[in-house]
Amino acid sequence: MARPGTASSVRSHGAGPQGDTRAALVSAAVAALREDGFGRASARNIAARAGCNQALVFYHFGSVADLLLAALDEVSAQRLDQYRDAVAEGTSIDELVPVAARIFREDLDKGYVTVLAEMIGGASSTPGLGPEVAKRIRPWRQFARDALDDAMQASGLDGVIPGESVAHAVVALYLGLELLANLDGDRKPALALFKDAEKLAGVLRAFSPTGGST
Amino acid sequence: MARPGTASSVRSHGAGPQGDTRAALVSAAVAALREDGFGRASARNIAARAGCNQALVFYHFGSVADLLLAALDEVSAQRLDQYRDAVAEGTSIDELVPVAARIFREDLDKGYVTVLAEMIGGASSTPGLGPEVAKRIRPWRQFARDALDDAMQASGLDGVIPGESVAHAVVALYLGLELLANLDGDRKPALALFKDAEKLAGVLRAFSPTGGST
DNA sequence: GTCTATACTTGGATAGAC
DNA sequence: GTCTATCCAAGTATAGAC
Fold first, then answer.
1. What ranges do the domains of chain A cover?
2. Closest Cα to residue B184, out of A13, A168, A5?
3. C1' nearest to CA of A21: which nucleotide?
4. Which of the nucleotides in strand D have any atom less than 7 Å away from a protein CB atom?
5. Could you give the 3-state DSSP secondary structure of residue A42?
6. C-alpha angle A78-A84-A88 in degrees, rounded to nearest 5
7. Alpha-carbon torsion B35, A26, A187, B131, what sign?
């Protein structure tokens, strides 16, 4: 197919004045997913946001679905980096919960995880998209697993709690909270949940074998 | 609008031989949401499933969105009843977790909560649908809250854990698990999670003030 | 109540000029 | 690489015959 280079060969013979359109399309796709949802993230919608022609979507990405996946790739990688930085601030449970709360609030404001949630929801209506999205969730689950393992070890709960399952649950919970919060724009329940979780983390610490200190 | 009676006045002057089409359309809508997802739950798709004409969707429900909401209403009410029955089997945490696991497996098989998940996902792309779906989630959160309150009381954890927040979290987790399971058809992580939760419920019981017995 | 036919809209995708 | 023009498919919704 007349698809240009996927990564490095793009800017080969004069891509344009102020940044290439390929990147603009990806950004526009992210915005479309966030603000209009999967169902309205059409080639025309995205192209209008990017200030270019609709045909360029197919020239650069071959299909709308592939552009959407590229958008998910970018926002996912970028956001995962920020998560890693934030989690590096602490290791024990009662240190991590406030961090999680802050990141969650940030996500609700900027709507990054919304992109992921939209893709997951949309995947059920688009043949072949499911596995691709699933592939891109794996790093998130792995990230949750690593952070949890560290926290469990720091709290002396190592081995007591099954990391694999809890990591899966954390990702699922996170997605569910995003979905519910975006449904009616009410993020109070989710924020209240994190506040309560902070309190509970303190209580749990008292029960942990090492008393919460390494 | 030329909309027929919403509930009782339907079968007033000869609705047809084998059950009225209105009910058939609702069932077909449920199936469409489950099997094809929100994005493909079109009037044509649903009508074909119901074995009738596409125009009848608009005659009976005015719009596709309203038919979808009717489908959500039915499956939600029906399923909530079954949940109430199941939860009545026990009150303490370690009694409820196996029950929750069984129901969850049942839902994955029959795909009832999928309908809810699809509507939540689709709502972000359909103007005005969000609040309507949110309204229909409220009974679920209330149900979770009641079940949890009973369990907390039976386990002597009354007051320790904030019911409101945990109920919200339970609903969110449930939705997230469904979404992830439907993404690639892999329900193993979710089922493993419930198995681990059963074990943990036993451990938690040992820590609870009353030792798990009322 | 149910059907056929049709009007209108939007969206994916391609061809070809520049 | 980008645009215009266009084709085609699918969807919502309505009008009108039966």
1. 69-206
2. A168
3. D1
4. 1-5, 10-16
5. coil
6. 150
7. negative
- A137 touching chain B per CB within 8 A: yes
Note the pLDDT tens digit of each residue in A125-177.
Answer: 999 999 999 999 999 999 999 998 988 888 788 888 899 999 999 999 999 99
d(CA B133, CA B69): 8
The distance (Å) linking the CA of B125 with the C1' of D16 is 33
Whether pTM exceeds 0.85: yes
Of all residues in chain A, the one with the smallest CA distance to B193 is A165
Q: Rounded CA gap, A89 and B104, in Å? A: 36
Q: How confident is the model at residue A14 (pLDDT cuts 50, 70, 90)?
A: very low
In sign, the C-alpha dihedral spanning B179, B183, B187, B188 is negative
For domain A69-206, the CATH class is mainly alpha
Backbone angles phi, psi at A24, to 5 degrees: -60, -40
